[in-house]
Amino acid sequence: MLGKLTDSFTSTLFGRVETTRLPVRTSSGQAQAVYLPTAAPGLGDSGVIIGREVYSGKGYVYDPFQLYGQQLPAPHWLVLGESGNGKSALEKTYVLRQLRFRDRQVVVLDAQGEDGVGEWNLIANALGIKSIRLDPLAARDGGVKLNPLDPAITTTGQLSLLRTIIEVAMGRGLEERAGFALKAAHAHVTATVRHRQPVLTDIIDTLRSPDLSAVESLGVEVGEVQSWGLDVALVLDRLVDGDLRGMFDGPTSAGIDLDAPLIVFDLSHIDRNSIAMPILMAIVGVWLEHTWLRPDRVKRIFLVEEAWHIINSPFVAQLFQRLLKFGRRLGLSFVAVVHHLSDVVDGAAAKEASAILKMSSTRTIYMQKAEEARATGRVLGLPRWAVEIIPTLSPGIAVWDVNGNVQVVKHIITEAEKPLVYTDRAMTEDAVAERDRADQQLAAQPRI
């Protein structure tokens, strides 16, 4: 009787009673099986393990080659963030883990370093690979040389590279008359130098003493054509007798192993704020385009530190735009590492930078200050919640945007990787010993 009265009273106040079961007291640990948590879908389980998704705790796996054509329209990747928040550690572990696959090959342009070597030197040594150190002083004493006129580069590629070098150095486009003088000089050198590799000195000498056939075809005086090419000759002379001499004024050095799983160009001896850096980027980029990229089904990764030297120069950026287009046809993933997006989107190459950003379907953003985070969010089209948490991110945690799939990921570094990833020279004796043991373990592994 009491139960019926209770039911009648409850239904009057709250409507029909669905159940009369007594409440159950339990813990949240037990109740989670009833109220399952939800999280954004991951990227699958095929590829390289990055770490854990912060909110769900799920493992986070990423591989542009596995995702391309399904979730990614392009395999290129942009990494952003303030110094000291984990960009370098992410790049290094990513490369080490990619090299576990047999059909992977990586080229790194290492623009940073300490103690006289690039910061990728430890990893290269551990894998039994010698870095390609581009150093003007070392090059004069038999160091590494890269020849812009290497026969491995097509004649069209050589001329394009020469124009880019000159335009970067001059800070403006090449005028028509100067461009013709350069084209005529290059054609003359290509046609007449047969018994050896043509070198920059041949171009300079021809610019100073133009070929008579080029003069006759235009019906102008030799002196006029000579004056057209004078500024061009002076710019190229810097690579032969100036501060950049020794690296590009001779045949390409023998012994550069383009089949090695990891190729490291050590640029740490070059002033990062000088005009030399974008010139180097242009020469290395075009040289790789014509000597390294091949249709052999190998998946290649081209990782560039301090990439604003590329994206902030209109002439160099145009070359790299072409290189990025190889991603779909030849399996190339371009990884650009930049501190601040404002360094490039507000720079001299804003148009070219925008095009490169559009090709980067993956964006990883580490901690940035609030103002920079808002600017980054606007340019990349990040959701509001992601923009708001970027200034609060701890080192090692980043916002990942993979073609609109946005998640917060904590990067995990294994004990074996730590000695190779953390390159601070102020390490303790125990840490040095740990690094040496890791080097020995990696060196003992079979080559990939």
Automatic annotation (TrEMBL):
A Pfam family per the record: AAA_10
Per its UniProt record, what SUPFAM superfamilies does this chain match?
Answer: P-loop containing nucleoside triphosphate hydrolases
Question: Do you know which InterPro entries this protein is assigned to?
Answer: P-loop_NTPase, T4SS_component
Q: Which domain of life is it from?
A: Bacteria
For this protein, the parts annotated as crossing the membrane are none
Q: What is this protein called?
A: ATP/GTP-binding protein
Provenance organism: Kitasatospora setae (strain ATCC 33774 / DSM 43861 / JCM 3304 / KCC A-0304 / NBRC 14216 / KM-6054)
Upper lineage is:
Bacteria, Bacillati, Actinomycetota, Actinomycetes, Kitasatosporales
